[in-house]
Fold these 3 entries.
Entry 1:
Amino acid sequence: MKGSPITIGGQDVLPGETKKIELEMPPLYTATNMSIPVFVKRGKREGPTMFVSAAIHGDELNGIEIVSRLIRSKSITRLRGTLIAVPMVNVYGVLNQSRYLPDRRDLNRSFPGSKKGSLAGRLANLFFKEVVSKCDVGIDLHTGAIHRSNLPQIRADLDDADVLEMAKAFGVPVLLNAEIRDGSLRQAASEEGVKILLYEAGQALRYDEFSIRAGVRGIINTMRHLGMLNKRQSKGHDINRFIARQSGWVRAPESGFVTHITQLGDHVSKGDRLATVADPYGNVVSTILSPADGVIIGKQNIPLTQEGEAIYHIAYFKEPDTVAEHVELLQDNLILGDQTVVEEE
């Protein structure tokens, strides 16, 4: 209803208001109280309600900085609708520099959760009921796992026409039609009718400036597409979007020390040398080859591997060389000048 409040954590937020809300989390031990920080900004004019969430995995820190820059950006001053930005969902994990919760569960396999469940289930239920269920759309921010980097990419149900248009609007070249995993936020949100994108970029426990800039820009692009912000003339190179219907990991054929030949964003052809594996004496014991034409969208960073370990994540496209070219154009756009999104408008 027009003019009605949104209530989060018992606090009402009316159109035109901005509030920072501390959403009390399930306690760990006696007298140990913690909270999820929630930033809510409502425009005076009607529009969609969007959530942006980060650090569902506690060691994935890029998203925290993306949310921080987003809420400080002048671009969101004239907002239509409502933005709910959550820089840290898994606060426990952030404090412990851990992907998981103290009960050793993965929060992103625990949705929609339960009020009477495990710690993971209770936290999932709290975030889902207080934030996600009150939104029309959402963007969930992730990175690669520990010692792995991801090229900036959108993963989503691209068979949904509305989601596909949101994914294209975000503005990164690589769009991956990804299966929904049981217990994930994306699954629970989709079942609730919330259209959701998952942004993957960078690596755990590290900030990556390219990934951060692409993330902030992408969220603002999506908000413009949804009518939450005024549209404006885009600057820099035109970035095409490429949809991958399939992707796969290339695994180490032997244990040893890895020397990478290819990097994130590279176009590779079937049979190309991706990396070598050597023994402690420096003798090459194996060469890792590309199984097909594609673009590297994920890779392991640590130079040690065990036989069978995933080393490269390759997305398969009809024209992978063109995808790689547009990844470079995106980098040029984000590096062009020293101006960041915070300084816009």
Note: The chain has seven helices and 19 strands.
Entry 2:
Amino acid sequence: MKIVVMEPLGVAVEKVNALAAPLIAAGHEFIYYQAKELNQAKLLDRVRDADIIMLANQPLSAEIINGCPKLQMLSVAFTGVDHVALDACRERGITVCNAAGYSTNAVAELTFGLAISVIRNIVPCDGRCRNAGTKDGLVGFELFGKTFGVVGTGAIGCKVAKIAAAFGCRVLAYSRTPKQELLDAGVRYVSLPELLAESDFVSLHVPLTAETKGLIGTDALAQMKPTAVLLNTARGPVVDSVALADALNAGRLAGAGVDVFENEPPIAKEHPLCGAKNTVLTPHVAFASREALATRAEIVFANIEKYLAGEPQNLVK
């Protein structure tokens, strides 16, 4: 088998070589590219003869997939796979595996980093300190005692709900499948309109699907309290950025912490959220802790080993 890692994995090359060693010892060809190739023709040249492709969050189009006649398997070093042309994979019978669970702690932690940055004015406070200023006008509010709404209770949503409870929040959740562990912990599952109306914080943890695209738009934002904060560490298109910026600038929402956008950063300076009030933005970094990236690399190599052994894991339907 020819195994091609088409982009960097965010870990030291020594770790990649160590993880690849068993595959090479078994007689497989292994190629690791340590820089992204955005030119699609050149990218196709990289992967054209691959039996297995490993990638992270770089988009993989149907044109590239269909240009690889030998392709059997994709090992995606990411939880979400909306950047991969899955229909082309299904048509070809190509196995797709993801790295589910690698970033649960990292994303949950950054969610609260964003929340606290917004409500305690950390970014403006830093600016004040560096310019001989004071706290005047920058007194924030606490998480403790507030209602924290979690939209989507997969692994990350569950972790966020538990941390919110530890902060002393009343936790509401919305999901198609309630989790018994959260019910046992006192989390109350409600409808999405009820969650939006009652929550002081709304934190998004859903995958990007046809149903969730634009889930938080003008109508949903209008249901939220004007004192509420929206947190998005899920996928950018789940939120209508223009509607969110309008709500923030009009004072219909107190703040937002956003890590994900319609496209991968860098985002344009003209992006509506860049000029929105009371907003903390991060460049899709929630998943990117040293620990998470190391775990991710281990998972995607294990995916390949399991596939070759006829026991595929982390299958994407």
Note: The chain has a mean pLDDT of 97.
Entry 3:
Amino acid sequence: MRVIEIEGGQGPADALRLAERPLPNPAADEIRIRVRAAGVNRPDIVQREGRYPAPPGASDILGLEIAGEVDAVGQDVTRWRVGDRVCALLGGGGYADYAQVDARHALPVPEGLDFVQAAALPETAFTVFANVFEGGGLKAGETLLIHGATSGIGVMAIQMAKAAGARVIATSRGAAKAKAARLLGADVSLDATGDLLDAIKAEGGADVVLDMVGAAYAELNLNALKPGGRWVVIATLTGALAQIDLMRVMLKRIVLTGSTLRSRPADEKARLAAAVEQTVWPWVAAGAVQAQVQATFPLDQAAAAHHRLEAGDHVGKIVLTL
């Protein structure tokens, strides 16, 4: 089968190359999927740069989410049959013609979606559900502040928050992206080149912050949160080290939390998959949550897909097609 391997160097053109490997054989509790589309995510870039190795037992091939048809089934698997249309969350291995995955981490492709749209769902839907709704405890009627609102995660967070009955304040860089976030459903969409804090305070502040920026927005988040607010960190694009006033955290009763998805145990991912299917998949079926795909690239152009993601001008997801 064809795969994309990391050959060396940090830039996409230097590091990514098309290669061939034997087909993987699914274990008793796994399925093998003929991959038709694979999502491209920022952790793929960080792994390519040598800063985010695959967890123990995971494939060293890039790719954390895929969609395709079940091609082979392990002897202990009861839910899936050969030919079923599925999308799945992976620990690695998505940039390939075939991928093996714990059968519990796969979900049916929602009715009406093609493989490209389905491949854009798992990583973002799982991440938003785990962090905004479980970690952040967002409820109907509360306000979610999303930084990086036109990223794949941000686009999904806007839609899921609105589907749950919450209010959304979105921040993104530039007027065009602010407009895009507004069209996606954000109640308030702010250009991050302006004075964010005054604008957020004018809207009453936030109950939950979904933070992908990190250090540069630490003070902003602390000021923007209402008493009892929850600050959820899922990426640190401007750095991981920040100084915050712990007395103000105490006085405002702020909860600061965060998580990664890839390193979670298999049983935890299976629990999360079941929760996403129960809560989020009905929103997808109803059209309240839609996969937003900015661009597609064939597998052998994975380097170009990485270049596009790194450019930062996309709204939504970038997907490889196979």
Note: The first helix runs from residue 12 to 15.
